[in-house]
């Protein structure tokens, strides 16, 4: 029975299209003689000559069910490879085949009887299954991804997946060669390739375009009214209304609230006073910030057509009134006198004044500003008290007298015991700091523009700028071993056989000059305005009063070499300074300060002081901050890590600044001006980059007498103590402690 049932189901799809076409009686014709071999459907080895397996037949049976009647012809024609016509005698719809295929597929009588029964069953069955051969059921096909089969047939045997060893190139060739490639799809139940018929392709296209699947379906058929249009006596149903029809729906209440009945709208427009219900004194009103428009001033006696005589302008006053600007006039018109009101003409500026009034009403912002009552004292930043910022110099302690002309420059020894000063009287004076005693006077025969003590404690040497030369002197003060080693260092130099071409000449001092302490003379040919040492004591930079790129020269003491570091000039150079920790050279011109990297030989930064003009320059011992003094009485503080613009600009002096200086150890800086004062400020620089420097002026020191409109010419701090030295135009040097 199992075999006959399987055979009946196998033959059923070939019966179903025939039922659709003609619906004949399914009475099996009696065979004249039974076949010699009754083939069981469980053994399909004998039917292998046709080359069609159960899985392939299931493919065609599924398409026969899903498509139209003519799909059988196309599918079996593709499978068999022949184009035969329908048999005239039979109603089976099966194409002519070879004798081997007929013998292989001839069933026994029991099979035909089962086929007739199954045919009756499918005649009444309306199921729309696509494929009933693969009995895997409603199981996801992803479960079979790791197996060689895709399901089981009705006999329990595996339906193997077709071997797909074709790569993309083969698919492309099939696409080019096979004209039916576009209508070939893969059956997910069996894994076989199916060729869609024309009816199936038309069905897919109708569904893709949004049409109905059935061609004969008309969605626009005329509707048949269930009820007639006439009013009948008896109702359709006389069932009493439910209780729920009288209770509001909770679902509708949650969605849209209570349903209100529609009331007819009143077509007449309603006008109302917009601000009738508002309290004019209410603070929370809509116009709480509204300020009423200012009213026009009431006319006075001058506006009268018959003003008193004192309001009438004389001829001089009328000419003066006409020469004034319209905004400067007290009256916008000329008062005139008429005998009666009938004699008053039309006002010429009437339309202009009305227009200006309209502009005032709608352009002027009348809004009440919420002013915050702030004490002006609270706007001043809270600075620490000067008492908390000690130590700093507060009073004058010593006065160094001896120069007969103004003292231009000062310098202190590295140990802080000695002081050197240069004056216009043509002499250098060496002082003992603690006692204000002049230890030695060195005549140099010219105005001393600048002096600088070598910062190295192992070298006792002073550089002085006199006219066009830089004099190197050994003062022989303090430790005699240091003074002797300095002479040995200078005398150990061996000149090269071929002297190099240099912008300056190094000359040894004569015996008479060595008696007063002079050791070397560097001649430049141009007036020298400044000399400054590098922190290690081997290099010194000089500024020449000339034009061109040779304004700044750098000399090396140990090798006695000179060089010009710049190729072109960027303006008149005022001051130069070495960076205390890095290989930088700061060059201050009249309008800017340039920071050069000496090793890379490039410009690193350009600081813009925004003043006229730069007169002095000083670098913080940490190297991240720079101060500049200017002739327009400004002191500018630069934070090199912050910006190239000034961080703070101080205007404490009343006249031009001549000198600025940082203290080497304490957070102090000072400035000297032509007003005769020295202002000491507290300048704390923090290691935290997020915290800005704290600048607080703490003391104004006075003592110098103004001479020739000149005051303080130079200031310098003591290297270890919170003391400051100042030199002035009155010929004195003063110490403030």
Explain this structure to me?
Strands 10-11-12-14-13 form a 5-stranded antiparallel β-sheet. The protein contains 13 helices and 33 strands. The model is unreliable at 1-119 and 123-131 (pLDDT under 50). β8 and β9 (437-443) form a beta hairpin. It has 737 residues and is of the alpha+beta class. Helix content is 19%, strand content 24%. α1 (2-21) packs parallel to α2.
Summarize the structure.
Helices cover 19% and strands 24% of the residues. By secondary structure, the chain is an alpha+beta fold.
> On the 0-100 scale, what is the average pLDDT?
78
Radius of gyration, in Å, reads: 58 Å
User: Count the strands?
Assistant: 33
Low-confidence stretches: 1-119, 123-131
Residue share in β-strands? 15-25%
Q: If strands are numbered along the chain, what order do they take across the biggest sheet?
A: 10-11-12-14-13
Cα end-to-end separation: 129 Å
Assign a percent range to the helix content: 10-25%
State the secondary-structure class. alpha+beta
Count of helical stretches: 13
Query: Any idea what the shape is?
Result: flat
Main sheet attributes: strand count, strand direction, barrel closure = 5 strands, antiparallel
Q: What's the topology here?
A:
Elements lengths: L1 H20 L32 H13 L4 H10 L18 H7 L3 H16 L24 E4 L5 E3 L7 H10 L6 E3 L6 E3 L2 H11 L41 H7 L58 H9 L26 H14 L12 H4 L16 E6 L5 E6 L5 E6 L3 E6 L4 E7 L4 E6 L8 E5 L2 E5 L6 H12 L13 E4 L2 H5 L2 E6 L4 E6 L5 E6 L7 E5 L4 E3 L9 E6 L5 E6 L3 E5 L4 E6 L6 E6 L5 E6 L4 E5 L8 E3 L6 E6 L5 E6 L3 E8 L9 E9 L9 E6 L6 E5 L3 E5 L1
Antiparallel strand pairs: 1-2, 3-4, 5-33, 6-7, 7-8, 8-9, 10-11, 11-12, 12-14, 13-14, 15-16, 16-17, 17-18, 19-20, 20-21, 21-22, 23-24, 24-25, 25-26, 27-28, 28-29, 29-30, 31-32, 32-33
Helix pairs in contact: 1-2, 1-5, 2-3
């Amino acid at each position: 029975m199992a075999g006959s049932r399987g055979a009946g189901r196998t033959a059923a799809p070939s019966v179903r299209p025939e039922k659709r076409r003609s619906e004949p009686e399914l009475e099996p014709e009696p065979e004249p003689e039974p076949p010699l071999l009754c083939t069981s459907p469980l053994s399909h080895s004998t039917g292998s000559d046709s080359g069609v397996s159960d899985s392939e037949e299931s493919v065609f049976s599924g398409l026969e069910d899903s498509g139209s009647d003519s799909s059988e012809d196309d599918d079996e024609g593709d499978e068999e490879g022949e184009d035969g016509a329908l048999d005239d005698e039979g109603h089976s719809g099966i194409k002519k085949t070879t004798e081997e295929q007929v013998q292989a597929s001839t069933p026994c009588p029991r099979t035909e009887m089962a086929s007739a029964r199954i045919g009756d069953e499918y005649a009444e069955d309306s199921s729309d299954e696509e494929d009933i051969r693969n009995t895997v059921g409603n199981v996801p096909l992803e479960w079979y991804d790791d197996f060689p089969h895709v399901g089981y047939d009705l006999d329990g045997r595996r339906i193997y997946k077709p071997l797909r060893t074709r790569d993309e190139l083969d698919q492309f060739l099939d696409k080019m060669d096979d004209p039916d490639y576009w209508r070939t799809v893969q059956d997910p139940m069996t894994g076989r390739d199916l060729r869609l018929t024309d009816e199936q392709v038309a069905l897919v296209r109708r569904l893709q375009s949004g049409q109905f699947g059935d061609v004969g379906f008309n969605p626009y058929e005329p509707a048949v009214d269930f009820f007639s249009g006439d009013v009948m006596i008896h109702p359709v149903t006389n069932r009493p209304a439910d209780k729920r029809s009288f209770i509001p729906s909770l679902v509708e209440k949650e969605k849209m609230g209570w349903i209100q009945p529609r009331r007819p709208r009143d077509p007449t427009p309603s006008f109302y006073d917009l601000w009738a219900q508002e309290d004019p004194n209410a603070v929370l009103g809509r116009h709480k910030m509204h300020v009423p428009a200012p009213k026009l001033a009431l006319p006075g006696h001058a506006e009268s057509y018959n003003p008193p005589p004192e309001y009438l302008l004389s001829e001089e006053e009328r000419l003066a009134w006409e020469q004034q600007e319209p905004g400067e006039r007290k009256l916008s018109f000329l008062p005139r006198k008429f005998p009666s009101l009938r004699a008053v003409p039309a006002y010429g500026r009437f339309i202009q004044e009305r227009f200006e009034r309209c502009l005032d009403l709608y352009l002027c912002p009348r809004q009440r500003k919420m002013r915050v009552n702030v004490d002006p004292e609270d706007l001043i930043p809270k600075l620490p008290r000067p008492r908390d910022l000690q130590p700093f110099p507060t009073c004058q302690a010593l006065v160094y007298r001896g120069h007969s002309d103004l003292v231009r420059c000062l310098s202190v020894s590295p140990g802080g015991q000695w002081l050197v000063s240069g004056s216009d009287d043509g002499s250098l004076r060496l002082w003992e700091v603690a006692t204000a005693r002049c230890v030695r006077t060195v005549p140099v025969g010219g105005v001393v523009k600048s002096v600088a003590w070598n910062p190295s404690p192992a070298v006792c040497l002073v550089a002085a700028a006199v006219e066009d030369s830089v004099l190197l002197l050994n003062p022989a003060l303090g430790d005699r071993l240091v003074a002797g080693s300095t002479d040995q260092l200078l005398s150990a130099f061996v000149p090269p056989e071929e002297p190099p071409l240099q912008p300056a000449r190094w000359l040894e001092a004569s015996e008479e000059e060595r008696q007063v302490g002079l050791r070397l003379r560097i001649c430049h040919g141009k007036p020298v305005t400044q000399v400054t040492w590098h922190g290690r004591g081997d290099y010194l930079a000089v500024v020449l009063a000339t034009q061109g790129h040779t304004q700044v020269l750098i000399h090396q003491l140990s090798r006695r070499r000179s060089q010009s570091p710049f190729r072109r000039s960027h303006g008149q150079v005022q001051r130069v300074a070495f960076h205390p920790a890095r290989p930088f050279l700061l060059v201050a011109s009249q309008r800017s300060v340039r920071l050069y990297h000496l090793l890379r030989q490039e410009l690193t930064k350009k600081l813009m002081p925004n003043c006229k003009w730069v007169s002095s320059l000083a670098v913080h011992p940490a190297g991240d901050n720079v101060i500049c003094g200017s002739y327009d009485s400004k002191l500018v503080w630069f934070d090199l890590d912050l910006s190239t613009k000034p961080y703070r600009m101080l205007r404490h002096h009343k006249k031009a600044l001549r000198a600025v200086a940082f203290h080497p150890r304490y957070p102090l800086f000072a400035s000297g001006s032509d007003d005769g004062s020295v202002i000491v400020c507290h300048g704390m620089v923090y290691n935290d980059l997020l915290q800005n420097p704290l600048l607080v002026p703490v003391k104004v020191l006075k003592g110098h007498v103004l001479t020739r409109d000149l005051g303080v010419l130079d200031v310098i701090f003591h290297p270890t103590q919170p003391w400051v030295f100042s030199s002035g135009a009155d010929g004195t040097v003063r110490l403030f402690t």
